[in-house]
Amino acid sequence: VKEDIVSYAKYKWPLLFSRFYEAYKFSGPSLPKNDVIIAVNWTGVYVVDDQEQVLLELSFPEITAVSSSRTGKMHGQSFTLATVKGDEYTFTSPNAEDIRDLVVTFLEGLKKRSKYVIALQDYLSPEGSSFLTFKKGDLIVLDPVNSGETVMKSGWCYGENANTKKKGDFPAECVYVLPTITKPPTEILNLFVQSGSVTDHFNQDESKPNESVSVLYTLEQYSYDHFRTPPKRTLSGTLNRRGKQNEELWKHSKVPLKQPLLKKLIGKEQQTADACNCFLNILAALLKYKEISHINTLYMGDHPDRKSRVANEFTDKIFTPPINQEILRDEIYCQIMKQLTDNRNSVSEERGWELMWLITGCFPPSTNLLKELTAFLRSRMHIGIAADSYTRLQKCLRNGVRKYPPHQVEVEAIQHKTTQILHKVYFPDDTDEGFEVESSTRAKDFCQNIANKLGLKSAEGFSLFVKISDKVISVPEGDFFFDFVRHLTDWIRKARPAKDGIPPTFTYQVFFMKKLWIKTVPGKDYQADIIFHYHQELPKYLRGYHKCTKEEAAQLGALIYRVLHGDDKSNLAKLQDMLPRLIPTDLVKAQSTDDWKRAIISAYNKDAGMSSNDAKVSFLKIIHQWPTFGSAFFDVKQTTEPSYPENLLIAINKNGVNLIHPQTKELLATHAFSKISNWSSGNTYFHMTIGSLVRGSKLLCETSMGYKMDDLLTSYISLMLNTLNRRGRT
After folding, report:
1. What is the Cα gyration radius of the chain?
2. Which of 145, 356, 365, 588 is the most buried (most CB within 10 A)?
């Protein structure tokens, strides 16, 4: 009953459910200039005098725009309401911005939920198509699965003409979403027919002022020499009918291409097909041909597409052909510039700029087209994304061509209006930090940025690692970061078949760690020691990979305790429970718990006052003396060398490939990198040849870590060769 009472009151006396604001002055048609009260509620905006008489009532469907500005006078702010009749009402109020924001909130919310749109112009559907025909002022009711939000975000929508009762797809640019959730009364609809300026008013944000259009650079002149079938002019200098049609090749179009734009592609069958397919995935197509009506994979949204898509599904189809075939790159740039010229659909134009942003991070055009593209972007610097695209183009010219189309992260970023991509990077000490990554960022640059931000003395030997699925793989320093992640994702996806027709999805993490321990001396780079070296060496030590005496283990155990607890001795009584975190697994039972406890406490007391970070450095200085310091360890099985045990521990470090007995930790052999002539790996093995390829000895290991061993060996040898080359040049 309470709910019914409130509902009745809400609709009977809507003013009682309003938010009220004082307005000190106002101006507008048929209104006196007196102080008034502005009331805003879910039905619209009311202007009330001090006697609570309603002077003006504007329902939200009648309001076409609201804006606020500073007047510079007392109270300093004003707001203006524009109506479908073309009237404007301006009010001065200290709450002008609040009123503006509230009205905008209602307008936007109602439009998103609305099921009603009104035609701003006549539209005749192409012959033979199922599109909806309507006249200016016709009310169109959206189908149940669509809403005003669908219309505003998509180039096309589906609905029923309330006058003709016909249903079909219609272009969103031809209608206006009415901010209402109930069917608007006839008198409101008539306002849209009666107002001569209504179409211009609603399209003012999408159209370009005449003075702006004249300075926007286009491909018109370029098209005369480089596009297929140049325009033919009559003796009087005017274009004939055929010329006019060709001249429009450089302008936005909704007609699919049957031939490429550039005449240099004419006659090349495969490239022609690729160029036309790319255009189908780019442009807003007002399809005139029934045979193409099944095409859904269009990016710019001018043709209905009711399937949900992965963010980079369209961009893959647009950018893969030109990345693989250089001859197509100018064509795709021309297609995107064409679609950004005289494009009256704001949604389509916005998506076109997204494509421009993406392509300028993938590859540059030829020198011939570069000046055209540069002029095109420079003439549109008032558009933020154009300026950003120009910057990306300069970086692309410096850094080179990508090997893969944009990664999903890049596509989603620009679709969410974000041109700055912050990527989380994890460190061995269980901390993480966000770093900006660009399309042109190579792994080496990324590493240097991280090293600089963390205050490391050098980035040499450090690497990025990508963890995806059950793999952790190092990123080659010369690779574009997003190219490598894309390559890795595609590689793993191919290895994992789709389930029930749904391709597997993968998330990944990026780690930054020390990979090559060539010149690592504890104490020389304090930040590297406490963030990386200690936390990377500790797990290897506790797993028992090093040959270590009990005395060294007690001393190291005391330092590990100090790293964990500092000068707090309260946990020393629990040492028996902490031993697995302090002593290598193969030494825990080498003596009794009490003996370990006494030895560790004794060593701990000798270092009284040492900080946790200093304890990390002291730990590293001890294990630095061992030949296996800075090694990557691999447990493998081998059967090629009878003098070695079947289970073998291999340590790869700056000295080469070390073969170690897994139980005694005795060093069986060290093969210097200069002696290794060949190596290879697979999913289950690692193979290495020592000495000459003909007479050398071979080592075949059974391991799932072959890819890591292969990469480490390649990286160490490459680093050493680069070092030798630098010395030779000096």
Report:
1. 35
2. 356
